[in-house]
Amino acid sequence: MNKIEHIGIAIKDMQQACRTYEKLLGTACYKTEPVESEGVSTAFFKVGQNKIELLASTREDSAIAKFLEKKGEGIHHIAFDVEDIYAEMERLRGEGFTLLNAEPKKGADNKLICFVHPKDSNGVLVELCQEIR
């Protein structure tokens, strides 16, 4: 794993959360993007070398909708940039981690993604991200 790629935050109201984070971080959202396959809309903020991703549910059956119902707003996941997502998935499987995806899938911000089950990482949902080249 190369670095923390972003921190994902589950939110209920995208417009309100974007205003809040624009004030908090002193910078505008640089990108919004729907991810239909996940039932979410996303907004990204850049702070130095780091990114924050806001995630709002667009469907009642999405993972974010379920997260918000169970836990409320807050940190949803930590994403790590990887050079080769396939190799990293294989390495983690070999180490005994449970992956929530059998294969990488297309995520927001031009990334291939895969999630590691939080039960295997002390309650933290981990996302692997590889830039689509």
TrEMBL record:
Residue span, VOC domain: 3-131
SUPFAM superfamilies, A to Z: Glyoxalase/Bleomycin resistance protein/Dihydroxybiphenyl dioxygenase
Class of this enzyme: isomerase
EC number(s) stated in the UniProt entry for this protein: 5.1.99.1
Domain of life the protein comes from: Bacteria
Cross-referenced InterPro entries: Glyas_Bleomycin-R_OHBP_Dase, MeMalonyl-CoA_epimerase, MMCE/EMCE_epimerase, VOC_core
UniProt cross-references to PROSITE patterns, sorted A to Z: VOC (PS51819)
Molecular-function annotations in GO: methylmalonyl-CoA epimerase activity
Keywords for the protein's UniProt record, in alphabetical order: Isomerase, Metal-binding
NCBIfam families xref list: metmalonyl_epim (TIGR03081)
Family to which this protein belongs: Belongs to the methylmalonyl-CoA epimerase family.
The protein's name: Methylmalonyl-CoA epimerase
Originating species: Pedobacter albus
Gene name linked to the record: mce
